[in-house]
Amino acid sequence: MCEEDIYLLIEEMLANIFQKVLGISIHTPFPRLTYQKTMSRFGTDRPDVRFGLELKDVSVLAAQSRSTIFKNVLQGGGVVKGIKLSGGASLSRKDLENLSQWVTSYGAKGLSWISLRDKKVASPLVNFIPENILSKIVDCMEGKKGDTLFFIADKKKIVNESLGNLRLHLARKFSLTPKNTYQLLWVTDFPLFEPNEEGKLTFSHNPFASPQEDDLFLLQENPEKAKARQYDIVLNGEEIGGGSIRNHRRKIQQRIFEILGMDAFEARNKFGFFLDALSFGAPPHGGIALGLDRLAMILTGANSIREVIACVSDEMSAGAIHTLITTVSSTLSRTLSSVRKSFSSFAIN
Description:
The chain is an alpha+beta fold. The chain folds into three domains: 3-40 and 181-290, BirA Bifunctional Protein, domain 2 (2-Layer Sandwich); 51-173, Gyrase A, domain 2 (2-Layer Sandwich); 292-348, no CATH class. Helix content is 39%, strand content 17%. The protein has twelve helices and twelve strands. The strands form three sheets. The protein has a five-stranded mixed sheet. It has a five-stranded antiparallel sheet with strand order 2-3-6-4-5. A two-stranded antiparallel sheet has the order 8-9.
């Protein structure tokens, strides 16, 4: 079994569901984007690709400015990235200040902007960026009169998270997302490991995903660069499923445990049964788990996943299923029933 087997199965199943539930034909195969590209272009690993506002890296140009903020960030290994809001030049100074304050909730220290108005360029950056460099930045961002360009300078993780969420915020605020459209895609090539808060490597998704064959040599000297045979499926900016091709070789699994900081005794104590099973010659295997409640939320047009869960467990409603029978609308009931029947008929066929 390999990734292509999973992709083919899930794409055919989802196309069948959309056809039977909504009467919509979904084109297959679904587009694929690597984790690196999704983070670079959208600031998230579950991108909503129904609209633009893609992130652009202007670090090279920003390094040629006189801005001490930009220079300090870049010298510290950070990045400067931006997004373009078409027609954004109509935003007031108060609107821009509010947006600058809004991004601080994601760790950013503020938001720089360039407003391309009819008669002049308005920006707090004009005193720190030479005119020729400013023009190159505008060209890089594909800016034109009437647009506003937003920039954040910080560590890559903070920049991606802040601009990625600003992108979604602006799309909602200015109604940039087309209605009744569905964009499915696969996100692939996730990192096998990622640093934790202490700077030590931990697993990105799970400790049992197989490394990509071309990256096996990296497990010895540069494990942080190894990519996993991990994949997620995304619908309209929502992750509706994820899975991986699992590791089936004992020596590689033992090496992964070592990278995660487990000595032989701990690995044996916690996963001895698993390592023994792999030594018997487990075949290549993999799979995927779909979030049917999240899929149902999107198909029904619900605003929250709580609307399609029979009984939400939290402090306010714990045990409610034992004391309350919730009435489900006839429309929602028919839609959910169609989803269930689609899965059943697909499995039978």
